[in-house]
Amino acid sequence: MRVMTEISIVAVLDDPVRRRLYEYVAQQPRGVSRNEAAQAVGIQRTLAAFHLDRLAEAGLVSVSYRRPDGRTGPGAGRPAKLYQRSGTEYQVSVPPRDYRSAAELLAEVVDVTGAEPQLQRSARSRGAAAGRAARRQAPAEADDELVARTLGEQGYLPYRDGGDIRLRNCPFHVLADRYPPLICGMNLALVEGLLAGAAAATLEAGLDPRPGDCCVVVRGGPEVSKTNLD
Fold first, then answer.
1. pTM of the predicted model as reported, rounded to 2 decimal places
2. How far apart are CA 160 and CA 31, in angstroms?
3. Which domains, from first to last, does the chain contain?
């Protein structure tokens, strides 16, 4: 049964070391080597290799090979094995529920009927509620830190890009592949609502698509702390 297969895949992350490795790999913009991953989480390379290969077997990370930079020819050494977050999504429910199909049907209806303004209004309202809740919990937190943390709680992977906050992934990327303008507009409205709800007046959301990233970027304010985002 498919649900049992997906439960087994998600169970791979039950190991705390493996989960830390997955989180580290998922936050990187490129493939990382076993050495890099081992150093990042503070374990031996052989243990990192074991857990990374388990993640790859489960389909949670993808594997590629690359020779060390600047080295070519017969003496260049073996290509390094690199690991990167997989684009595959897994959802587990018991008994099985097909929420993805329902989401696709709803997105199709919105797209066909031209209901984008209503969708964006709802997304902005939901984002505002999340922003208000975050601000109530941390009234003195800096705008950029609060927004980055809250975006992470919404399923995004925020990271520092100078003074901007970019998002490593789109939580709705399956739908975004089929309905890019619709889902990008929804993402933007949600983030705009979050900024408004959090009273993050120093920040502004906009569209700036990059390969592999969410289409939304948050600009303005002081440079985001590496400690909070990396």
1. 0.65
2. 18
3. 2-85 (1.10.10.10), 100-229 (no CATH)
